């Protein structure tokens, strides 16, 4: 009888505390799940498939060394300042959201026409190398997740379509005295997602 009375008092005290707001059962916050980077739009595959490809051997990665830009802006600069008749020196430009969409793949005229690039400064790599420029200065910052997702997709596509070896996916600085594509470019992370031939 005495034990029941103590239990009753204990339950009354807990009830009073609960009703007064002095006690609340523990709450659990839901875990926030980070969304993976947005994948490149599927339409890019149909755009890429439209063009006949010639004998490419390399994929050469560059950065624009500028905070913003787009294929149209670089094309204008290359025509007016560099005097290049075929304009944009790269075959592809991947935007960072400042000038063109974040991760947006822009196809240059040199890819459409399957002509030499003007990106390498070395004839071998201009003639046989597909130039891809990511907008940004990767000495000061890093490529965005969307840029890297698009680059991985594009490199994988080009490897399979043009039969390019993984060892021939190179940075501009591999053969030219330059920092391009910047100290912060995650080259080995890119290679980890390439197709092995």
Question: Topology, pairings included?
Answer:
Blueprint: H1 2-20, H2 43-49, E1 58-63, H3 71-80, E2 92-94, E3 105-107, H4 109-112, H5 123-128, E4 129-134, H6 145-162, E5 169-171, H7 187-191
Parallel strand pairs: 1-4, 1-5, 2-4
Antiparallel strand pairs: 2-3
Give the biggest beta sheet: 5 strands, mixed
Radius of gyration: 28 Å
First CA to last CA: what distance? 83 Å
Q: Helix fraction? A: 25-40%
Tell me the name of the CATH homologous superfamily.
Peptidoglycan recognition protein-like
Number of domains: 1
- Any idea of the CATH topology? Lysozyme-like
Put simply, the count of helices is 7
Residue windows where pLDDT falls under 50 for at least 5 positions: 25-37
Strand content: 5-15%
Give, in spatial order, the strands making up the sheet with the most strands.
3-2-4-1-5
What's the pLDDT, averaged over the residues? 84
In the CATH hierarchy, what is the architecture at level 2?
A: 3-Layer(aba) Sandwich
Overall shape: globular
Secondary structural class? alpha/beta
Oligomer designation? single chain
Question: What does this molecule look like?
Answer:
The protein has a five-stranded mixed β-sheet with strand order 3-2-4-1-5. The N and C termini lie far apart (83 Å). The chain is globular, with a radius of gyration of 28 Å. It is built from seven helices and five strands. The longest helix is centred in the N-terminal third of the chain and has 19 residues. The protein is α/β, with parallel strands linked by helices. The protein has a single domain, classed as Peptidoglycan recognition protein-like (Lysozyme-like), CATH 3.40.80.10.
